[in-house]
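Rotation project, supervised by the postdoc (A.L.). Task for the rotation student: set up a whole-complex structure prediction and record inputs and outputs verbatim in this book. Inputs entered:
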Amino acid sequence: MTGVVQDLGYALRQLGKNQGFTVVAIVTLALGIGANTAIFSVVSGVLLNPLPFPRADRIVSMFEDKPNFPKGSISYPNFLDWQRDNASFEAMAAYRWGDGSITGVGTAENVPAQRISATFFPILGVSPLFGRNFTADDDRRGASPTVMISEGLWKRKFGSDLNVIGKQLTVAGDSRTIIAVVPASFRLRINNFRTADIYVPIGQETNPAFYKRESFWGTDAIGLLKTGVTLQQAREDMRRVNAGLAAAYPDVNANIKANVIALKDEIVGEMRPVLLVLLGAVAFVLLIACVNVANLLLARSTARQREFSVRAALGAGHARIVRQLLTESLVLALVGGALGLLLAKWGTAAAIAAIPRSLPRAEEIGIDIRVLFFTLSISVITGIVFGLVPALKSSRTNIGDTLKDTGRSVSGHRSRIQAIFVIGEMAMALVLLVGAGLMLRTLVQLWGVDPGFNPHNVVHFGVTPPPSLAQGSLDEVRAIFRQIDSTIHSVPGVENASLHWGARPMEGDDETAIWPEGQQLPEHQADYASTLEYAVEPDYLKAMRIPLLRGRSFTDADNEHSERVVLIDSSFAKQYFPGQDPIGKHVKLFALDSDPTQRTWVSRVVVGVVGHVNQWGLAEDAIRPLQAQLYLPFMQGTDVSMKNVAQGADVFVRFGSSLNSEATFQTIRKKLLATHSDLIVGENQSEEEVVARSIAGQRFSLILLGVFAGLALLLAGIGIYGVLSYLVGQRTREIGVRMALGAQRLHVLRMVLRDGVRMTLAGAAIGIVAALGLTRLMTNMLFGVKPTDPMTFAVVAVMLCGIALFACYLPARRAMRVDPMEALRYE
Amino acid sequence: MTEANLPLIQIADLTKVFYTDEIETHALSGVHLSIAKGEYVAMSGPSGCGKSTLLSIIGLLDTPTAGRYQLNTKPVENLDFAERARIRNQEIGFIFQSFNLIGDLTVYENVELPLTYRQRMPSADRKKRVMEALERVGMAHRLRHYPSQLSGGQQQRVAVARALAGKPSILLADEPTGNLDSRNGEAVMELLSDLHREGATICMVTHDPRFAKHAQREVHLFDGKVVAEEELHKLMQDAQV
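Outputs recorded:
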């Protein structure tokens, strides 16, 4: 023990004495360990930590797997049959978006809302802060209207009133009794579910169409597996259940299967490979940092050879010297680790704040015991890794030679280990740079993708009319929306504006079944063709700058009194009218028309063909099976559609390019509220943000890989600079001798650069081979560029070599300036 | 005086001053020296007398603060770095006290080194010169050895071969026996004497009178000045007092 304390004391003294070396080593390690800790804290928070639900390992997400949608919405009657017929689940809960317009308490506003089964919170193990969960009795048609509110809404709207239970809140025009407050700690973000302010029972839906088997309405489900039931067994069980439904309802269910996914996979599934690639990348950064510090230690150990020889001469064994040196490297690593932890805490918070929506479970990321243990472990391992080689080398010092120090010949002293280290870090830096380069190329390719519309200066926002409108006539609904449209158009600076419902580009899909005229109608509804559906006004194409390719656009004359018309996009035309002129052809839409319980074929005539709009995101669109798009005039919506619109619609607005769009939007809001004080105008969302968000995942990867590659490049540059500086220092006398023998400065420059170039080229060659193998792991993260993209490899290799040569040039220049007289002075 | 009789090295009123912080050190003060072609000169004097500084200036490793220096009748005191390097490579052969062989290079490569700095010298010519030089010093049988595999005497003989390979006008030897035992020291001195007999011009710094006697002429330095032998003894006695 005394020996260890002595070693520690001596190590601290040594490091204190060589402050320059100590600072460089600690900062290098802090960067490496910090970057690793940061990424590990993300991996730990997102992938490794269990979900914050008591039986998370038994909770699954459930969808209907349909031809166009592996994660399609579930028909509510199907869901009820799943609940009844399965043998694997303790409970199942359905959920879908809700209407969150709340009135009656303070200012009317629209808040996030979800409709959920009574079993939803019990499956997740979430207990209300106070009050009670929904019961089966709440979750049925005709039940007394109830609502659960979030802790945030309770504080904001009710001033944290402890007597809130039993009070009334008007939600979408229905007065509901508050039965519970949901704790703020509950957070969940999955397909069709976001943590909301309002939760109402899904079974209280009053629209009879919701209960039709062919209605899907954006409903998904979660389930709690029975104890001991595996995911595979549950899938088999659901296959059996669906086979029964297909037999019973072949018209709708013939092609429908259940898609059962572990909840954790549903939440983090897409991020898993990305995070694992990043974890691998950042490990390279740490290795490069280790190599740099090892090289510094090697250089230092050469300078300390006499000290080790004296120690050995006084009786210290190899093990004792190795222990002494490892103590020094461990002290460095632990201090670097502590500093790295601070960097990681700061860096992770900054990264998450910068790109919040790209990362699931971002709020669960932090420095916990596991992360602390990871940091401690990698610090210790790092200390041993970078300390061992120099320690072993130093312990093998030849005592006699060192102490005699004859100095008869000038040693070039090209350390093979140091050269190997530099080659290694060059190779690793190249791999990281190629990774970052590929992501950069991906992003450039994505930005080059034509979204099919021009998002600049366009925003959209929701408008929710007063709940009483739902009871009004269709003429009243149309009239109020015409007033809204007219008010918006009257605001100075509004170039184009259009009311809208249905699918929103890159944000939300809405499909309808169609039957192109003249084609064979399939036997079952399940086999009907689908199209994306957008209901818009004449100004929409102008607002979004969607080109009209053939025929005509909508006009104000395309209203509820005129012939029913549609515009189709180029994909629709190609798919359903190949080689034909679609103008004048009829398309039948399988829709709820005037009867809210029965779909019928509604025929519409094609009047124009427009450009295809990127619906699924810049990266995703090309690979999604559903491409066909269809536009219908907003005012020509079916009776059922217009009834739904009475509960809210969107508005797309294009502003003049020189205007402050936020100020103009606020003017619109003011004018709308001045004419309709009970209207709820939602927050505006810029279309540029919508487009950017569709590639947020790639941006996230690029930013992190870019940071790691930059760090790697910097460390590798410092590494080769350090080694060459050391070699030049070691060879000063040799350079002096060469100059005495007539070497010109150029000869010396060439001599030093040759060493650097050899190491760089060897590193680049190995790096290229390694990158060819490793970048295949990124295949799914790339777009429009192959993992072996020659351009990226070439540019990266040239850049790395350029920077390495610059790093080499600095010591080479110093070597050129060696004064032979000075170098030989100690003759 | 014909060109053939002109001195190879002619130094007049040479001064070298070193400035360290605010201290001015006069290493050489008004040195006059001529060395004729084929002459063997030994420079001696006590430590710090300026003999190595003078040798460095003669070898164009350093420049004088003032004075004139002609090598082969050409003034060389104000040449630029590149020109001095070229003249060092072609006209001067260095033999150092610590041999200064390059540890990573073989005997052959060490001897070849100055020739590689010459432009457009075919490798066959280089090889011929290297082998001649090594044979001349009796080290041709060790050409693939590294310096660390040789004794001190052998290393110094290789260093002499390296100095000879370029066929320089003058050999400058700075304490060439300083790191050798007396037997090897004597052998190296014999080698230099042989080279002189074959026509080489040699200027050697030594403080060992036994070795100085091998030279034709001895130049004594004291406090940066050339002095006569008798004067040197007197000055040294005064200094001891």
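Student's summary: The longest strand of chain A covers residues 599-610.
Supervisor addendum: Chain A is about 50% helix and 15% strand.
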